[in-house]
């Protein structure tokens, strides 16, 4: 490695379609015993941020960029945050950028080549794409973003492998290899992979990126899936746990095909702990993730990303879960 490369801060871009398990993998990295300190940049596609609360309470600095995709409307914010981090680079060993599930990683990777200051002080170590073994084949039929995320990956983490059989996993891996023949691919359950499979990958493969998209360094246009929107809701009163579970369960059964992703941080009546709720289509999960801080406002926040979302209907449903 050259002297310049040794002085540059390595950056890992963590991407993957909605619900693939990016935050789970990020938490695995942050809690592992590697003796390193990372600055974390999180981008959400929504009006209210909740991903910052889903990241474990580690000793890392977390920067959150809301209401826009990191590869288009808030890309300038990424450059500014990286510039700010470089002024105190002795406080961390690397940077992890977690993109929104709707991000095309190509423009994100572009940032590390076309911006002179970023190119001088940072080094794109790898684009790591998390793939959902349950939904990826269907997602690839519907989303160009998911295709690009696989195509531009240096490393793919095939996640949720416990929910598929060997034949299904082999079929997925064959499809991935059709898109990205040389990618390093690792299977995982709940993002539990060796850190050596994710970090210190030796640099983003620009030659391969140019093979896939020759105008990679010039093309800055980007658009999202047509019809995909994000809606966020907040209530200040505590929620009734049974009411919420009944409402969200019915909602996902009826509209889960159109709701790509839903997630939230909830305050239940009689509980001093935050509840983290997450769902992909009709599959929902959640758990208590620790107490509310003494100076923290106990608002419940819920985000939906999908098609054909009815804002008044969703707002009324969420508000109906308030404890009386």
Describe this protein's structure.
It is globular, with a radius of gyration of 20 Å. Helix 7 packs across helix 8 (144-151). Residues 45-51, 54-60 and 64-74 have low confidence and may be disordered. It is 33% helix and 25% strand. A seven-stranded parallel β-sheet has the order 3-2-4-1-5-6-7, sandwiched between helices. The protein has two domains: 3-212, Rossmann fold (3-Layer(aba) Sandwich); 229-319, 2-Layer Sandwich (Hypothetical Protein Yjia, Chain: A,domain 2). A hairpin with a 2-residue loop joins strand 10 (273-280) and strand 11. The N and C termini lie far apart (63 Å). It has twelve helices and twelve strands. The protein is α/β, with parallel strands linked by helices.
Please summarize what this structure is:
With 324 residues, the chain is of the alpha/beta class.
Q: Give the termini distance in whole angstroms.
A: 63 Å
CATH superfamily of the largest domain: P-loop containing nucleotide triphosphate hydrolases
The sequence of SSEs as H and E is HEHEHEHEHHEHHEHEHEHEEEEH
What's the average pLDDT?
81
- The poorly predicted ranges are 45-51, 54-60, 64-74
Helix content: 25-40%
Specify the CATH architecture of the largest domain: 3-Layer(aba) Sandwich
Could you tell me the CATH topology label of the largest domain. Answer: Rossmann fold
Q: Strand order of the main beta sheet, please?
A: 3-2-4-1-5-6-7
| Biggest β-sheet strands, sense, barrel | 7 strands, parallel
Number of domains: 2
Number of helices: 12
Radius of gyration over all CA atoms, rounded: 20 Å
Level-1 CATH class name of the largest domain: Alpha Beta
Give the overall silhouette.
Answer: globular
Beta-strand proportion: 25-35%
Structural classification: alpha/beta
The counted number of beta strands is 12
């Amino acid at each position: 490695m050259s002297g310049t490369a040794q002085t540059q801060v390595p950056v890992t871009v963590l991407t993957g379609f909605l619900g693939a398990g990016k935050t789970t993998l990020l938490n695995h990295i942050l809690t592992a015993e590697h003796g390193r300190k990372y600055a974390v940049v999180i981008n959400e596609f929504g009006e209210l941020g909740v991903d910052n609360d889903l990241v474990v309470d580690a000793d890392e600095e977390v920067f959150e960029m809301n209401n826009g995709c990191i590869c288009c409307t808030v890309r300038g914010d990424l450059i500014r945050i990286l510039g700010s981090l470089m002024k105190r680079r002795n406080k961390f060993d690397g940077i992890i950028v977690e993109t929104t599930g709707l991000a095309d990683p190509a423009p994100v990777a572009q940032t590390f080549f076309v911006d002179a200051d970023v190119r001088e002080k940072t080094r794109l170590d790898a684009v790591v794409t998390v793939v959902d073994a349950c939904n990826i084949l269907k997602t690839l039929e519907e989303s160009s973003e998911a295709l690009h995320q696989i195509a531009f990956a240096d490393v793919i983490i095939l996640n949720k492998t416990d929910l598929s059989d060997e034949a299904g996993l082999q079929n997925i891996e064959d499809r991935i290899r059709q898109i990205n023949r040389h990618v390093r691919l690792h299977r995982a359950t709940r993002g539990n992979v060796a850190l050596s499979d994710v970090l210190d990958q030796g640099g983003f493969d620009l030659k391969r990126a140019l093979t896939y998209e020759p105008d990679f360094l010039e093309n800055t246009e980007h658009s999202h899936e047509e019809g995909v929107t994000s809606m966020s809701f907040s209530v200040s009163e505590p929620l009734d746990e049974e009411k919420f579970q009944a409402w969200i369960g019915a909602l996902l059964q009826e509209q889960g095909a159109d709701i790509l992703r839903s997630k939230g941080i909830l305050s239940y009546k009689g509980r001093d702990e935050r509840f983290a709720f997450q769902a992909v289509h009709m599959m929902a999960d959640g758990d208590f993730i620790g107490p509310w801080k003494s100076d923290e406002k106990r608002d419940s926040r819920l985000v939906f990303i999908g098609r054909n979302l009815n804002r008044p209907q969703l707002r009324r449903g969420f508000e109906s879960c308030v404890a009386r």
